[in-house]
Amino acid sequence: MADRRVAVAIVGGGLAGLAAASVLGRHGVGVLVLDDNRHPGGQYLRGGRTAGGFFTDGVRRRGFGLIDGLARERVEVVHLAEVVGIEPGFELLVAAENDLFAVKADQVLLATGARERFLPFLGWTLSGVLSTGAVQVLIKQSGVLPARDILVAGAGLFPTAVAADIVTSGGRVPAVLDEARLARRLPLPLLFAGQVLKFARGGLLLARLLAAGVRVRHRVRILEAHGERELRAVTAARIDRRGALVPGSEMVMTAACLAVGFGFTANTELAQLAGCRLTFDPALGGVAVAVDPDLETGVAGLFAAGEVTGIGGAAKSLAEGRLAGIAILRQRGVRFSRETGPGATELRAARRRQLAFARYFNAQHTFGPEWMQRWVSGLSDDVVVCRCEGVRLGALRRAVAAGFEAPAGLKKATRCGMGLCQGSTCRMILLEVLAALTGKPLAEIPPPSVRMPVKPVLLGALAGGRS
Ligand SMILES: Cc1cc2nc3c(=O)[nH]c(=O)nc-3n(C[C@H](O)[C@H](O)[C@H](O)COP(=O)(O)OP(=O)(O)OC[C@H]3O[C@@H](n4cnc5c(N)ncnc54)[C@H](O)[C@@H]3O)c2cc1C
Predict the structure, then answer these.
(1) Measured on CA atoms in the order 128, 387, 134, 162, is the torsion positive or negative?
(2) Ligand 1 atom at minimal distance to the Cα of residue 43
(3) Fewest Cβ atoms closer than 10 Å to its Cβ: which of 153, 158, 391, 401?
(4) Which helix (H) or strand (E) holds 464?
(5) What do you get for the CA distance between the two ends of the chain, in Å?
(6) Structure letter (DSSP) for residue 127
(7) Confidence band (pLDDT; 50, 70, 90) for 283?
(8) Ligand 1 pocket, 85 CB below 6 A?
(9) Strand 175-178 relative to strand 215-218, pairing
(10) Which CATH superfamily is domain 369-444 in?
(11) Statement: residue 342 has pLDDT above 80
């Protein structure tokens, strides 16, 4: 593809990217959406209309409405396009179908979403151990289950939701094991009153699981996945109020498949590369891109919306995407028409409501520093941290003891995060382990720097791309 010039480039075709693109398209602004998936809609609408599972909701309906409107609003979407770099000015470097091309834009919106957060344990790299997100992708996108019986573990609301997806798809879930205590699930009355539908949906989901005979157990930690090459069994144990193992509580469960997840973490690499400031807020799922009330980052003309500004769910992404679209219009001197939908005041109120929910959502899988220290101190030196480079926890412990207390140094000393996936899985693990080993607050540990290309690029694309 030849290099392109557009008014506004949007990275990410999830709810946030689509909501912004729709506002811009309806006001006649030339907009190009670049997304690395085969279909628009991001994580929430993955698999299309028929993949909704047990429930459908207003956000899904609005999301599919946005997709239906793309052609009418003259929004161009390039699928299977990975934005691997961003340079000042703004020039995006895009890898697509064995090709490499540049997109120049006056303004850019980063709506790159989130990925799953992991906490490693012995055997987590065995075949048969999957992330909860991977199991959901298999169900939504391909309509298959990785196994008939799937043990689900981790912490937070997402593993429970995936367990419900498994049951709805004809699978069996022997148990859901959650690290957090049950009391965390109870929302404050004000939050409950503001989001009754969401909590009713959660309650129904849980009822469905219990009716299917699923045991939901709280304060249980996965200690080890056993097997030669493939998973055979899982050892878990109870933990006390402080996150310490309860002696003698270990239980071994036969399992051929384990789905595990500990919440989400924002995809901040491109923002980091572009020089945006990052913030750290456990209530927003940890590291996120700092934005002003108009969703503009510290870099003029560069906006961010959706999960990348803080983990808060689909409704937050929708509201933020539209809000960013309106702010981009204003910056371009284009008058916003109320006929196209809600304006900035309503959207800001919706965003505030969703940020309140975000605090509740993220609290389900966030644990304090002492808890994390107890958890890391219980892990064996043999636990793999970086799967690509085969770096184990013991190597990190030795490097930290030798004085490598900053992520950049620790990365260089151990090669952790320097493999093919460039730390996409172990980046957060490295930071969390480092915080636990040094006793430093996570907020004070800067994420390792990012370099182009932020995603692996095929040699063919480099060779056939720009010289
Ligand atoms: C695996 C997974 C499963 C989830 N399932 C649910 C669920 O069932 N229910 C729920 O409420 N929430 C779910 N979420 C949370 C979900 O992220 C939000 O609810 C919602 O989808 C967020 O919309 P978004 O537009 O902010 O991000 P996303 O929907 O994540 O959209 C971001 C898009 O940007 C693309 N992208 C990222 N980086 C690049 C790049 N460099 N170049 C090109 N494209 C890029 C991504 O592939 C994606 O298509 C899930 C999240 C994950 C990670």
Answers:
(1) positive
(2) 29
(3) 401
(4) helix 459-464
(5) 14
(6) B
(7) very high
(8) no
(9) parallel
(10) BFD-like [2Fe-2S]-binding domain (1.10.10.1100)
(11) yes
Give me the chain's average pLDDT, please.
Answer: 94
Fold matches, 4-115+265-361 and 120-261: yes
pLDDT, position 38: 92
Tokens standing for 443? 């907020």
Residue that the structure tokens 């973490």 belong to: 265
Taking the C-alpha atoms of residue 384 and residue 361, their distance in angstroms, rounded to an integer, is 28
Structure tokens at 48: 């299309």
Confidence grade of residue 47 (pLDDT, cut at 50, 70, 90):
confident
Tell me, using a 6 A CB cutoff, whether residue 136 lines ligand 1: yes
Query: Phi then psi for 163, rounded to 5 degrees?
Result: -60, -40
Strands 114-116 and 215-218: unpaired
How far apart are the CA of 133 and the centre of ligand 1, in A? 10
Cβ–ligand 1 distance for 361 under 6 Å, the answer no
Report the nearest atom of ligand 1 relative to the CA of 131.
1
List, for residues 255-267, the tens digit of each pLDDT value.
Answer: 999 999 999 999 9
Q: What number does the ligand 1 atom closest to the CA of 116 have?
A: 53
Q: What is the pLDDT of residue 196?
A: 87
Residue 156 burial (C-beta neighbours within 10 Å; 0-12, 13-18, 19+): buried
Q: What's phi and psi for 134, nearest 5 deg? A: -65, -40
Instruction: Specify the fold of 4-115+265-361.
Output: FAD/NAD(P)-binding domain (3.50.50)
Residue 459, token pair as written in the block: 């040699």
Closest CA to 42 of 316, 324, 331, 255: 316
Q: Which atom of ligand 1 is nearest to the CA of 307?
A: 26
309 C-alpha to center of ligand 1: Å? 12
Both tokens assigned to 432: 């969390």
Of the candidates 336, 302, 305, 319, the one whose C-alpha atom is nearest the C-alpha of residue 8 is 302
Domain boundaries, the chain: 4-115+265-361, 120-261, 369-444
Strands (E) located in 376-425: 384-386, 391-392
